[in-house]
Amino acid sequence: MPTVHAKKRKPLKKHKTAAKRTCRTVTKKVHGKKKAVRVCTPVKKKKPARKPAATPAGYKPTAPAFPPSVPVDPGPGPSPNPPAAPAGSWTPPPVTPLSARQAERLLWRAGFGPKPGDVARAVAMGLDAAIAELVHPAGEAVLNGPAPHDGDGAALQPYDLWGHDHLWWLDRMVRSSQPLVERMALVWHDWFACNRDKVQVDLMLGQNALFRRSALGSFANLLRDVTVDPAMLTFLDGIDNRKGAPNENYAREVMELFTLGADRGAYTEDDIRQAAKALTGWRADWADGTGLYNFRFDATRHDTTTKTIFGKAGNWSWQDVCDLCLQNPLHASFFVTKLWSYFVPVPPDGPTQATLQAAYVGSGYQVAPVLELIFRHPVFLDGPAMVKPPVVANAGLLRAIGRSIDIEDWAWLSGETGQMLFEPPNVSGWDDARWMDTSTWRGRWHVTAVALQPTQVPTGAPSTYPDAEDGAAAVAAALAAVGSPSLSAETAAKMKAFADAALPASMNSTQKRTYRAMRQNALRLLILTSADAQTC
Amino acid sequence: MAPRNCCNEFTRARFLQRSAARAGAGLPAIEAGMPAPAGTGLSRRTFLSRTLGGALAVYGASKLGIDAFEEGIANAAADPSRVLVSVFLGGGMDGLSVLAPTGDAKYAGLRPTLKVDPDPTRTFAEDPTLQWTAAADSLRTLHGEGKVTVMPAIGYDHPNQSHFTSRHFWEVGELSVDGNFGWLGRFLDQHGVPDNPLQGLSMNSYLSPGLAAASVPVAAVARPDAFGLYVPGVGNPVLGPMYSAIGGLGALPTSDPAIGQARLVATEVDAIRTTLTPYQGTAIPHASSYGTGDFGRKLEVLASMLAANVPVRAVAVDAPGSWDSHSDQATTIGRDVKNAFDTLLAFQRDLEARGIADRVLIHVWTEFGRRPQENAGGTDHGAAGTSFVIGTKAAGQMVGAFPGLTSLDPQANLKVTSDFRGVYCSLLEQWYGVDAAPVIPGAAGFARPALVAA
After folding, report:
1. Which of A247, B240, B320, B427 could be joined to A241 by an S-S link, Cβ 3.0–4.6 Å?
2. Residues B318 and B211 in one domain
3. Are residues B206 and B258 both part of a single domain?
């Protein structure tokens, strides 16, 4: 696990190793099957900035594609996942009409919050249809709204400019018609956390495309793809792991953080060493000015001796390591509990966990069936609130007020809120217990202030703001201006109390307008930074 | 503070600077089955220390009001006591890159690309098979002055090679994943006071788990500079009521933990903003021989605090560095070792110049060492690590021999020749002068190395 320390960064710094390459599609034999493969060749010449497409163009993983979903062969030995789960199971209750509050929560937790009208639409659809639309999106995602640009109107350059990778993804969070796909990509980014401090940005964006492709698919496939994903091969040293000189970094974390969990008796130190040997063989080339490229499996660097992992001996390959981890009896319980924790702030009870594990294993390690159960769970819909992850709060705020990515500031402001995309603090991802402290609260305030600035009510003289608006009308106007988030009764009352008391008793005719304009701006800030709006 | 429609503070450079200052983001998230960091769940309150001219996050179960702390600090300051500074090299430092076993026949073979060449001018006086690396010259200098005790192979039986778990053992002072409180926290529970949160000071942006105490308050330094908010479109006379409303909204009761946390933080923000207003621009004067890094700045401030009799008894601070050097170690390790120990040398010299070196001891530790056999460019997690006690009062005599590279443990790692729990017992008994038994479980069973000069 690399320890990552935040660095002082200058804005708009050129990426140190922005890779330049050209790509073409060829037919190659991969794992005995013919496949269309993008082959990328580095070019030394400086190219104009690429325009980000649905996935940033210009890079495709050089890792081979796999045969479709690897339904895991249990092989000899213990049957996979005899649920170490508690007895009993949980059955989703019959669907009752979806309340606006529940719809709002669903849209926040399974996406990036509602745009105006989304809550009413979800309520009209009902829970099943709303979940189905999220979990089974049809076709390609559509990006609705203006394309992102920097403060001068220039297109983003995610491969080349500091912070633009963050902005590029934030834009998809704001505009995608498939919010759960983006949300799950964020989950996988946290689950398999790599950091651009150590990994070239093109590889990070390639990994991001993988997380998007595999957002709602098979975890078995995702695990294999991630294992040989160039960003991961770089971050956890897979390309330095070779026969005779095994590097254990990935072998350890794939068990400890990705599939099994530490100190549960799921594996031993020797399992890690043996798995490291099985994972040997991946390499890449390096070119100055380009960085790492041409990630590939090199059989001459692979350790072909017999490895014993979880008590099973064989000439295991990297694919086998993935499968053995999935078949480990303690994997399914780890997986469903970890996935659940992204959506619900309290652990699942025993019967719920059993049901989730059964759905996961029964579907051949599919993610979607587990998500559907989580989203229908009463604890999800009606249980305790969660603090919105900072980047989710930021994207949702822009959705609510109808603003596109039109400045670069979100990148460094996200540092203030504690969640810069592509820079998780370490391989175990972000610590969501730290989402809300006095420093990050201040960052959230500043995100809100910057977001509202273009649409704030002008206060300069002569103000034209209505000079007779009372407190209740001011609160109503402010709520409407910020996407009508639902407020608790006590918060709504406090807002009105502030609005009623914020103006001096005696004002001249200019002040009546100017101070009401200020009050309106203040109310919008207070509403959006309130605990009600920062949780869901 | 009146950020009225303007934004002197709201410059990108200032924010970047603050982001950088918040580096080193703390203990990672915890997965199911992992030990939770000691101190998890301790209540946190924010407190403005006039002594520091800044805001502290105070952790602990003290029933005292926040106002009592100022008085407690003032009382405790009257009687300066010995201080232990615990410096953590997170990630697992490669000890062979500080003291290289160039005289060991196996060394060159195990470290074909990472080895350093023999250099008789850097021979380690206590074991001629070892030599200080060039990056560790600061440590060599201090060792030559008798101010460094070296533990060349420290650890525990059945070494755990998870960063999270092994660090946890070191933090709580026992081989248990269940410990909730740190070993220094337990020391403070026994011998600290109920009204001085500075007695256990985490110089990180989070509470260092080793300091987590059960019954007495301890503190983490928050940013001591001003705490303004950018408020476009709102000016006087609405600004004042708006600020008050932040605190008012935060004070609303709720039974929901997440909403409660968000509201509590809002009240803390309001309290800090209000209280810090008179303190803008207040800086602690200090010498400037530390270089430019964040680590040096922290120790610089610490030295000035100790010189001013700020009543600190135990400090925890993380030393920056890519210590988890699985790859590309040749690039990182020399830089990191040099930065860490050059900074500690500057700190030691500052303490000496201020005449307070005799009451400060530095304990440098890492969660494990790295494997002697390199992996072609880097090193994987090992067993025995390297630790140092530094100070004018350090005994200066090696604890536990270097075990050599010929006879390794069954996993081909360096064998352990000293136990960190014995070191803790010695620090408690010889440095703090207290009984180790109530602090370190099984204390009676550990040999006590001589760590403190008479």
Report:
1. A247
2. yes
3. no
Mutate to test the interface with B, among A3, A7, A518 (most CBs of B within 10 A): A3
Interchain CB distance below 8 Å, B256 and A6? no
The Cα of B87 is separated from the nearest Cα of chain A by a number of Å equal to 16
Q: What three-state secondary structure class fits B159?
A: coil
Is the Cβ pair A442, B235 closer than 8 Å? Answer: no
Asked whether the beta carbons of residue B242 and residue A525 sit closer than 8 angstroms, the reply is yes
ipTM over 0.85: no
- Cβ-contact A75, A40 below 8 angstroms: no
Whether residue B1 is contained in a domain is answered as: no
Instruction: Let me know whether B179 and B151 are in one domain.
Output: yes
Residue A523 to chain B, least CA–CA distance (Å): 8
How many structural domains does chain B have?
A: 2
Q: State the amino acid at position B294 in one-letter form.
A: D
Looking at chain B from residue 203 to 242, which residues have their Cβ under 8 Å from any Cβ of chain A? 205-206, 222-223, 227, 229-235, 237-239, 241-242
Q: A432-488 pLDDT, tens per residue?
A: 777 887 778 888 999 999 999 999 999 987 889 999 999 999 999 999 999 999 999
CB–CB of B327 and A453 under 8 A? no
Residues B209-229 as b or e (16 or more Cβ within 10 Å = b): bbbbbebbbbbbbbbbbbbbb
Domain match, B243 and B273 both? yes
- Are residues B313 and B431 located together in one domain of the fold? yes
Nearest chain B residue to A526, by CA:
B246
Asked if the Cβ–Cβ distance from A531 to B263 is below 8 Å, we say yes
Please check whether residue B48 touches A, CB under 8 A. Answer: no
- Amino acid (one-letter) located at B115: K
Chain A environment of B32 (Cβ under 8 Å): 261, 264, 333-334, 337-338
B186: in domain? yes
Residue entry with tokens 């490229």: A293
Contact yes or no for A6 and B377 at CB 8 A? no
Rounded to whole angstroms, how far apart are CA atoms A492 and A527? 9
Same-domain pairing of B16 and B139: no
Residue B417: domain span:
83-222+283-445
Helix (H) or strand (E) holding A472: helix A471-481
Q: Are residues B18 and B99 in the same domain?
A: no
Q: Where are the alpha helices (DSSP H) in A363-423?
A: 368-375, 378-382, 390-401, 409-417
- Global pTM? 0.69
Q: Which of B234, B246, B378 sits opposite A237 (nearest CB)?
A: B378
Radius of gyration from C-alpha coordinates of chain B: 23
> Residue A263 and residue B321: Cβ atoms within 8 Å?
no
Domain stop point among B263, B279, B295? B279
Q: What is the CATH number of the domain that holds B311?
A: 3.40.720
Residues in chain B with CB shorter than 8 Å from the CB of A273 are 411
B381 contacts on A by Cβ (under 8 Å): 248, 252
Instruction: Measure CB to CB from residue B24 to each of A5, A264, A386 and give the nearest one.
Output: A5
Q: Can you spell out the DSSP letters for A100-145?
A: HHHHHHHHHHTSS-PPTTHHHHHHHH-HHHHHHHHHS--SS--B-S
Q: Which residues of B touch A236 (CB under 8 A)?
A: 326
Parallel, antiparallel, or unpaired: how do β-strands B44-49 and B418-419 relate?
Answer: unpaired
Q: Say yes or no: B355 and B287 in one domain.
A: yes
Cβ–Cβ < 8 Å for A72, A62: no
